Amino acid sequence: ERGKNEPFTLHLNRTWQLGCKAKSLKQSITLLRVIPVKVLLVFSKDDSQSNGFLWACERAGFSCSIARTPETALQCFLEKHHDIIIIDHRHSRYFDAEVLCGSIRAMKSSENTVIVAVVKRYVSFEKLLLLINAGMFHVFTKRSFTIWSTFKICRHCSLSVLFCFNRACNAIFTAMEQSQEAIEITNEDQLIQYVNPAYEAIMGYQQGELLGKEGVEVPKSEKNKPDLLETINSCIRNGKEWQGVYFAKKKNGDSVQQNVKIMPVIGQGGKHKDRRKGSLDVRSTTSRGSDGESGSQRRHSSMARIHSMTIEAPITKVINIINAAQESSPMPVAEALDRVLEILRTTELYSPQLGTKDEDPHTNDLVGGLMMDGLRRLSGNEYIFATKQPHHIPGHLGTPLSLSDIPQYVARTMENEESWDFDIFSLEAATIRRPLVYLGLKVFSRFGVCEFLHCSESTLRAWLQAIEANYHSSNSYHNSTHAADVLHATAYFLSKEHVKQSLDPVDEVAALIAATVHDVDHPGRTNSFLCNAGSELAILYNDTAVLESHHAALAFQITTRDDKCNIFKNMERTEYRTLRQAIIDMVLATEMTKHFEHVNKFVNSINKPLAESVKSILTSPENRILIKRMLIKCADVSNPCRPLQLCIEWAGRISEEYFAQTDEEKRQGLPVVMPVFDRNTCSIPKSQISFIDYFITDMFDAWDAFADLPNLMQHLDNNFKYWKNLDERKLRSLRPPME
């Protein structure tokens, strides 16, 4: 405590000060409550130390969470991003504070987090140095707690939060200073608080001439309609944004046309401030450059002119139309349009907002793990492969020279390959886990791929061998059996009447090749894992569609580097470019971050016009692309639409792959992308229910409406009921226990 009016000041690196005038420590703590602070206590068990910290946090008004294990602590931090973490390091047999601190510091979101260690009363200097080097902000020694301990926690928390706030303010200020758009900020009385350098250059004023004065004059003239200013002021008073064109006076008296956006900002006390962004119109600058302006000013003006060009994106046109419609709309309609504008301005227009984040971790982890390239997650349960063992099959299976050379027992497993209920696992067993070459030879022959590509069957065989050799047989799910399964589904969809009517031969060949290569060299880990691990592929592809970009690129590298397997070598250049582009587009469409965009575009561009009997839409180039994307997406995740036993086998395999990823993330101290996929706790039925609910049902409803697939929809319904039944019985495994 200080004297009645004595301020206290905290110093950091002698360059930054936090000043706060308070009558008592109690008032200091109250001041800190303005900023909500989240604290994580990592204690293996309750004792006087953990209780003391918990009491201190409660008295300070902080939100407090408790974790008992390092895994729980990491998961908790990923979800809540605490401002301060207190780790018990008195009993290192439970967990190592240095390792846990290092894991947390490896995450970018911990940049401004305060981490505190609690150590025994007598601890060596070397040990303290190790803790500080690991990223600890402060070390507490074991002792009884006093009000001073509470204050120290408050101090560290306030520093953490204010660092974040200070960093954000600096970032915003830097962005405004470097912006080529003119920015003006006024208070509620229309007095200028700030203008940026671009504004000075365009309008001819210096900042000192404007601060505290009324905004630049907008003259009432023929150019500015008489009611324009009233319209603008009315928008701002009602808390709405105004966007449009008006003429303003520069310092030299010239009238300049500006494209302006004015946004009200709620300040302290709930009053409105407005912020203007103006850019010079091309027509107002035809005589610029000869009036003695500096090079710097001309450069700013030039950049401003670029921003004012009249090439508008469709979404911008829609927003402008809605803005115009609001002016003459009654209040309920105007408010509804405000909500529409708010939605349209988001960058994720096609990604649903998950409303069950807290209630359903399986859905949250699945969606996050599949749709994010950053920190996210997934789920499963212990699983032993039910791989079918072939009977009376030689230990070595030679590669066939042609279809006629396929062994009889392998040929028998492919007799019903044109049926949706074809058992890919029987073929996997018969071919000793090399089903892609055999199924590929038969499917490609049925569709006349060699004839289309002008290549020999031996070249096709060599290509299939090379592609299959680059699938990882050690992966439980993303191996050549999955590729063969997707190829089978693709061929099945291509046989449907509506699909055949819509696609050209080049589209069919592109679809079959894309299905074959769509996961080549898949490492059995998700994009999020590769990005978090800083893998070479993530660096190469800038953390964007990492795996899908790699699959497409590697497929063409494998194909073109050796004439013996180059199925494209005899194609005419233009035809090859068309085919290559279609293959790449389809492989990239399997990336899940664009899932909802592809489905929504398909529904709006294909399903709805078809329902209105507009048949001509099927053959347009744009819509053929949408159909091909939807085709390979459905083929790629068709497991829930397979017969029940096949569906169960696939569910076990994908779960095992996610378990293995979670295990590796824990071993390496990486963020756990899908925490519910812990092999000891995961519920496979729940994960399947979430996947079907969120990704499969709507997509296959749309695809069924187009391609007519009643058998698939019946399987989907049966499989969903199966998983639902297991979940209702509180079972977490693939199958119910044997009677």
Automatic annotation (TrEMBL):
The active site is at 478 (proton donor). GO terms for molecular function: 3',5'-cyclic-AMP phosphodiesterase activity; metal ion binding. Residues 168-239 form the PAS domain. It is an enzyme of class 3 (hydrolase). It holds the Pfam family PDE8A_N. Its EC number is 3.1.4.-. One of its GO terms (biological process) is signal transduction. This is Phosphodiesterase. The gene is PDE8A.
